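Encode chain A's predicted structure.
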Amino acid sequence: MHYLTISLDPERALALFDHFRLIAPRVAALALGSFVVSCGGTTPIRIGVAGSFSDPIGLPMKLAAELAADEINAAGGINGRRLELVPRDDYADPDSAVFIATDLYESGVSAVVGHLFSGMTLAASPVYNGGDDPVVAISPSSSSPEVTSAGDYTFRICPSDLAHGAVLAHWVRDQLKLQRGAVLYLNDQYGRGIRQTFVRELFRLGGQLESIDPYLGDKPDVAAYLDRLVRTKGIEFLVVAGNRGEAEEIIRQARRRGLTIPVLGGDGLEGIHEAGELAEGVYLSSAYFPTIPTESNRRFVQAFQRKYPTAGLPNQPAAATYDAVYLLRDVIASVGPERQEVRRALAGVGSETPPHEGVTGTVAFDAAGDVPDQNVYIGLVRQGEVDVAEKATEVARGQ
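Encoded structure for chain A:
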């Protein structure tokens, strides 16, 4: 027996059924049964995944989303319906972020996991929060304080820069017992956010700063700043509030001048351990390290490496994306895929309903869609690897 399979949208399929009902009632009855099966409970639930996948930091985010979706589908999907991801690359460009946000908004996805960087999340948030049918967007890693006020449909599963800056200040004073230092910060949303809270908290803790200077560019020329530090006696530490590439260049320039003081930075320094001896002894804060010794993280890392044996260890955006997909699985399984219901249920996670226990820790949203109690860790670069020095949020909270 041979079959002819034709894909039709529901409206055209019903019109075809009416035609068959007139000329062949028994065929129509069989066709209606098949139509109900194919257009009913088996229709996939679609979730957008938006990020800078062409960036080495962003690619693991896409891989982790695919891993989570595969696991969910292997376990029966969401109430028997397959989970389908709709990935879109924003190329770390705000205009592209707006374009793909519009595309995802109009595609009918139930929610979006994204974007990766704060600038893209802020550019896209008016799209997700606008129109007659706004859609939830959960960022795994946009840490700018400005994301807090981006809109009712904007959430994130990562601490803000406010948390990272405070944690670094406590690490300097409470753990390293250092007092006098300097700050070099990238003059953008990320760098200014880290600088703001680090400076405020360090002063509150009795620390001192000899200089607070901005820089721009991937290869910043900070010679004048570093020369001034060399002439200043008693400098004990340097905070670089920026990204990995800039930090490497700054450390290189500092070492040439004989400055061997400890260097600290936020999660923008992710991957700096790959710089080898240059990065030895650098401290960095992060909401996640693949070496966190929890059972859920061990399972996640093992599953990630099995599926992607050449991709290396998962990073923070990967772990938080994995958590976000599973969180949406739970929410949609409870209230259905309609956008307004997803947003309502998501906003109640941690208050109206229990928190979500994920790889990155306990996810509980406040009224702004932030996770104020999310863990922040301090890592120390040793021999080309990052060791988890301590769960630094407990230090910052005086526990």
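Residues 1-40, 392-399 have pLDDT under 50 and may be disordered.
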